[in-house]
Amino acid sequence: GNIIYLDNVNVMGSIATAVQNTLENNQVNVYPNPFRQSFTIEYSLGREAGVCIFLIDLLGKRVAVQATENEVAGPHSVVVDFTALGLARGIYIMNLQTESGNVFRKVIAE
Hints:
There is one protein chain. By secondary structure, this protein is mainly β. Helix content is 12%, strand content 55%. It contains 2 helices and 7 strands. The protein has helices spanning 14-22, 82-85; strands at residues 23-31, 38-45, 49-56, 62-71, 74-81, 90-98, 101-109. It has a 4-stranded antiparallel beta sheet with strand order 4-3-6-7. Strands 1-2-5 form a 3-stranded antiparallel beta sheet. Strand 1 (23-31) and strand 2 (38-45) form a beta hairpin.
């Protein structure tokens, strides 16, 4: 299939409503960006939900996955230790997924 590159994309329409019901105000912050060794993902859940975080390279391959079964409603933060993953510097896509949908952010490893 075709590869599509995304930069700070929020899905619109009926899926976006479902995502917003899970992710408060559809806010997902990633910092620092660009980063050298690690970065932090901050998000807030409007209700209890399972969360998967994927790191995807520009070829579309999932190079890292972190999943939780159920997280309580409220603010959360996850630190991704990029150096422990042994990946090359470059551009990656962070995909935060709940049962309601996906939010994507571009992250840059220097």
